[in-house]
Amino acid sequence: MALLQPKLNLKVAQRQVLTPGLMQMVSVLALNKLELKEMIDAEMVENPVLEEIDESVPTLDEVASREERLERSAEETVAPPKDVFSEIDFGSYFQEYLDPGYRTQPEYEESEKPSFENFLSQPTTLSDHLAWQLGALSLDPKLHEAAEFIVGNLDGDGYLAGSEDELVSSFGQFLQSAAEDGSAQSDGTSAAAAAEAIRDLVRQALNLVQHLDPAGIGARDLRECLMLQIAAQQAEFAHLYGNLAVPPEPDENPHGSFRAEAEAGIEARRRSMEVAAVIADQHLHLLQKRDLKALAHAARVTVDEARAGVEFIRTLDPRPGRLYNREQTRLIEPDVVFTKRGNEWVVSMNEEDMPSLRLSQRYRRMLVAENTDKEVKDYVKERFRSALQLMRNIAQRKSTILRTCEVIVRRQQEFLELGVEALRPMMIKEVAEEIGVHPSTVSRAVANKYAHTPQGVFELRFFFSEGSNGPEGADTPLLVLKRKVRKLIEEEDPRHPRTDDQLAAMLQAQGIQLTRRTVAKYREDMNIPSTHQRRRRE
Length: 538
Known about the structure:
It is a single chain. This protein is of the alpha+beta class. It has four domains: 19-51 and 329-464, no CATH class; 126-179 and 190-210; 222-241 and 261-323, no CATH class; 467-538, Homeodomain-like (Arc Repressor Mutant, subunit A, Orthogonal Bundle). Helices cover 53% and strands 7% of the residues. It has a four-stranded mixed sheet, with helices on one face. It is extended and about 100 Å long. 18% of the residues are buried.
């Protein structure tokens, strides 16, 4: 019988460990110029050893030395007593208090006033806009609470997320938790009756939200969103023109033709809304196919009425929530600049407004001073080590980006000279092998960074694209291929759009070997409809 005994075993294994310095180097490399500047500013606040080199602003060392010189000069010489009247500016005194009337100030008064940027408010979101409308209504507290619950379940496009059963269940749990927190007493109603009451409350709240601005909010799908917008415009149209009293026209009215034309326009507008409601409610699948004849036949209207209804639907917003949930504009500032000097392309870093760092001389003297406490010395040493690591990582980032961009410029000179059509395929792996780093390093070096070129400002990842085999090999990047497919589709006859086979044949005639499936894939990637959906039927 074998006994369990403790044993010691040696095992050799390799494991990659990321030190804090290496982790910082990886994170610094992935930052663009604006993000790096924010990081440096934050690091300067936390690390007193770091100083920014700025000739217009004196450093701590300069201030300290200036104070020492002032103290020594004050000790050496004793200042004579000052005349108190010499400190009074009598010119400004008389100008300020003894001027009898209006005068033009010779200088603009400089007063510290808050910047106008401090008065800019945050953009209003969809939830804020709806909450403001709910606050202006006199509602039952439970209905108001349910409406806020509905607003909280709207997505960025303004659609209601979740089914009615899910909303009823979630709102019931919310009410139950609120009642437990408030130690409310039950009124003795059954669970089924309570659930039905909650369902009616949710329906009322949903109906209330769907009648708020903008129209189409709270819809469950595209059909309901369009129907809500059409109903809102129909109600407004009826309010404006539905109750107008038409006086009898005299026998000879010089404005009779204009009046008839205006009434015909009003009637045509009303009819287009009616047809649009029928199309949106029952025939959205035919609307996607752009078949006016089939749409007119299904809706039992004329082709002209169907066309007017489709044009009215085009004025509606399929994503009404985007009006308030707009994405914030992202500020782009190039990290590198590609310029041509003579016959040679040069890569330079855009370091404008970037702080230049240096180590503080004052804290260096604290390390060698004998009267400095050990804890202070240990703290200063740690801060120096952190500051040096950051400065090395910033220098390493600059070197990696410059070497990567030099390879990009060398391989994409035709693009810099001629434009996008001359872009050549290039892989991250090839650039990494050329500069002797890992592909992930190049990927971080070009992530979220932009280059200013004679052809415009482009993201560095824009220059990396796969190629497609042709008579001359992989000589056409994927981006250019998609542009060619899009251009061929834009130049086609809408009544007779080109098929994927025809597009592939046209590209093969240009020396680009693509199959029909590849063309279809590129077309789908660019969200271009199929041939049947692009065909315009009159």
